[in-house]
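Field notebook, page 327. I keep forgetting to write these up properly, so this time I am using the form the group agreed on. The chain and the ligand, hypoxanthine, are recorded exactly as supplied. Prediction of the bound pose follows.
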Amino acid sequence: MSFSKLKKVELHLHLEGAAPPAFIRSLAKEKNMSIDGVFDENGAYSYTDFWDFLKVYEAATACLKTPEDYARLTSAVLENCAEHGVVYAETFLAPDFCGGGDVVAWREYLHAMQEAADKAEKDSGIILRGIPTVVRHFGPDAAKKSAKCAVETAGDWVVGFGMGGDEKFGTPSDFAYAFDMAREAGLKITSHAGEWSGPEEIRATIQDLKAVRIGHGVRAIEDAALVREIVEKDIVLEVCPGSNVALGVYADWASHPIQKLRDAGVKVTVSTDDPPFFHTTMTDEYEMLSRTFGWDDDTFRALNIGAAEAAFCTDATRAQILKKLEA
Ligand code: HPA
Ligand code: ZN
C-alpha cells in the first residue's frame, strides 16, 4: 500500500510553516516585499540552525499581511494535507502574526481561515481545527494578549492553546498566567518542550502549564522517571521525527527515540511540524517510520486512532474522524 493513501491524523502543524515556497514568493511579488535570505538558489527555505530557522520563518510570515492572505494559505495547506491522506489536522495559529494580538483583528483572520477550512472540508472531506499559539520569544506580555484572543474565540473550532518559538527563552512558569486564562476558558493545552531543552523543561511544562500534550517531548527519553510520569499522566507526545532530523536534534532516523518511547508505553503521534522547511510530508514520515522501524499498517492504524483520541476537538468531531479512518 502506498503510504500517501493511508488515512492520517496530524496534530502538530504550524500554518505559516506549511506555506509552500512558491506561495510565499508569489505573495512577496504581489506586495513588492523583499524576501532576501528566505530561499536558497533552488527555491527551498534556507536556514542554518533552529534559531536561524525561526528568523527565516518570521521573514516568510511577514509576507502574510491580511485575513485574505491567511485564507489563501489555509486553502493551499489543506490541499497539500489532503493529498497526503490527512483526514483531520490541528494547526497552530499565532495571534501575534494574525493581527498583532488584537482581538478584533484576530477575529477577522480567524473568520477568513475558518471559511477556507469549511470550503476544503466540502471539497475533500478534510477537517481542520485551530490552536492559538504563543510565540515564546515574544515574551509573557504578548502571551497574555494571545491568550485573550484564544479565550474570546474558544469553541468548537478554536480547541486548544499552545506555545512554540524559542524553547530556551524564559521558563514555562513565566507563561503560566496566559495558560491559566486559556485553560479556564476550556481550551486544552499543548506546548513545545523537550526538543532543544532537556527533561526538566518537559516536567515544568506539565507542572506549570498543565499541558496534556507536549510538542516534540522527545528528549524525555533521557530520563526514565519522566517517561514513567508521562505514561502515568497519559500525556501525549506530538512527535515530528523528520523535523528533528532536519534540525539536527538527532543525527539520523535510526537514532530517533520514537520507537523507544512507544515501547515504553508513551502515547506518541506523528506530524510534520513545518513540512516544506524540513523537506517532509506525512507520506515521507510514514515511509521513513516503515523503513527505519518496520512500522506496518497495524502500527499506523493504532497510531492514528491514538491521535484521534488525543485530538482537542469535540467528541462528535472525534467520532467523525474515527469513521474517516475506517473508510
Ligand atoms: N518549533 C518551534 N517553534 C516554531 C516552529 C517549530 O517547529 N515552527 C514555528 N514556530
Ligand atoms: Zn512545532
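OBSERVATIONS:
- The chain has a mean pLDDT of 98.
- The CA atoms of residues 288 and 294 lie 9 Å apart.
FOLLOW-UP: compare against the apo run.
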